[in-house]
From TrEMBL:
Name the record gives this protein: Bifunctional diguanylate cyclase/phosphodiesterase
All residue ranges annotated as the EAL domain in the record: 176-427
A Pfam family hit: GGDEF
Organism of origin: Agrilutibacter solisilvae
NCBIfam families reported for this sequence: GGDEF (TIGR00254)
Length: 431
């Protein structure tokens, strides 16, 4: 029976009791002038484990990791489950960062042995972020945020683990480190903008719409790459505010476009696809900014559907009933399953640019591309190829029946005013 301080599944401390422990031991460390280490651990691709092997197996993986953390912890240390697949390890009375690093490396070594249950064996890969009190913070909540941001920085950089940067160092990680705080209020400060990359009908190169791509121009740092700030926004929860800003802004700006009926595509992150309030948020944006000549398209990644297809299908179906089109982005790179594909609530598939780039040189990329086009058409979906860079690739796609193309061969992503000028020219309209 749970004591109220334990996680029911793993028997570790739950988030609430762990935060109480963290506050108490940080107080002791500050009073006694000792060091305390905090490690936050995420299981990589946990949604895929659940989708592939089932939720019961996923639960057994969580219990397995909990046991490995117990094996790493000393008698005076504490382990906890603080999220769905997020764990924490509190290391009291450590001498320095090196001792925390040794604990992380011990955990990684223990996890090198695949986890086996029944006839299934999986390698449980994790990413860890670490921080030390008082070096990185002297308050519980802030130390936890330091460790969590370090985890996201490790994931963005492709590392297994990463420490919070020291306050007196400038090793390049400090810039990544500050992004979470600096993203707060970026839309209100006018630092975010949308650029538009045209989408053209393949058979005659006539523009049919554009994809809205978010840009961040920091007041001091200049332009920050989306590959850097989007993952941080997703993991810290700020992506919801940013996505709704993008949705409203894209509809407002697209309402100023002239010419034939056009579509505007907005990317929706996986964390929002299963939210119950997403249909309401979309409906509100359409009520404020929707125009008859503008077709809203929501682009979601194929991976967004994996964790809970039934629930996400319900949400997307509600949105489609509003007249919004759904596009499955990066198709072919996720975990495609024909069992659910026949019921997928979508209107469009986007072939990932990695396949388009290898179309003329890699037979496997070509085979996958042609298969996607054929599959989509059999189910009544249109096909978009992104990342079209040369004329020969475009001709091959057009000859095989690809419906829509987008890429630098036609135009790069442009600020709103530049896109409006390009659009008028491409449609042969007077300035």
């Amino acid at each position: 029976m749970s004591t109220g301080i334990d996680d029911d599944l793993t028997g570790l401390h739950n988030r609430r009791s762990f935060l109480a422990l963290l506050r108490r031991h940080i107080g002791l460390a500050n009073d006694q002038r000792t060091n305390l280490g905090l490690v936050v651990i995420d299981i990589d691709a946990f949604a895929r484990i659940n989708a592939t092997h089932g939720f019961d197996f996923g639960d057994r993986v969580l219990v397995h990791l909990a046991q490995q953390l117990r094996d790493v912890a000393r008698r005076q240390d504490y382990a906890a489950r603080i999220g769905d697949n997020r764990f924490a390890l509190l290391l009291t009375r450590v001498m320095n960062k090196g001792h925390v690093e040794l604990a992380i490396q011990k955990l990684l070594r223990l996890l090198e042995t695949p986890f086996a249950s029944g006839n299934t064996r999986v390698k449980v890969a994790v990413t860890a972020g670490a921080a030390v009190c008082p070096m990185h913070a002297t308050h519980a909540e802030f130390l936890l945020r330091q460790a969590e941001i370090s985890l996201e920085a490790a994931r963005a950089l492709g590392h297994h683990s990463l420490f919070a940067p020291d306050h007196d160092t400038d090793n390049g990680l400090s810039q990544l480190w500050d992004l979470e705080i600096e993203l707060v209020g970026a839309p209100e400060r006018g630092e975010l903008s949308l650029h538009y990359q045209p989408k053209l009908r393949a058979r005659d190169r006539v523009p049919v719409g554009a994809e809205a791509l978010m840009r961040w121009h920091h007041r001091a740092r200049g332009t920050i790459a989306p590959d850097l700030f989007i993952p941080v926004a997703e993991q810290t929860g700020q992506i919801r505010t940013m996505t709704m800003w993008a949705l409203n802004t894209a509809l407002r700006q697209a309402g100023e476009w002239t010419g034939a009926p056009l579509s505007v595509a907005v990317n929706v992150p996986a964390t929002m696809v299963t939210r119950h309030d997403l249909p309401e948020l979309v409906e509100n944006a359409l009520h404020l900014w929707g125009r008859d000549h503008v077709q809203l398209v929501l682009e979601i990644t194929e991976r967004s559907l994996v964790a809970d297809p039934k629930h996400s299908f319900t949400i997307l179906s509600q949105i489609r009933e509003m007249g919004v089109r759904i596009s499955i982005d990066d198709f072919g790179t996720g975990y495609s399953c024909l069992a659910y594909f026949k019921d997928i609530p979508a209107d469009e598939l986007k072939i990932d640019k990695s396949f388009v780039a290898g179309l003329l040189t890699d037979p496997a990329s070509a085979d996958i591309t042609w298969l996607i086009i054929d599959l989509a058409h059999r189910f009544g979906l249109s096909v978009v190829a992104e990342g079209v860079e040369d004329e020969a690739t475009f001709q091959a796609l057009r000859d095989r029946g690809c419906d829509i193309v987008q890429g630098h061969l036609f135009a790069q992503a442009m600020p709103p005013d530049a896109f409006k000028r390009w659009l008028r020219g491409a449609l042969g309209l007077a300035a």
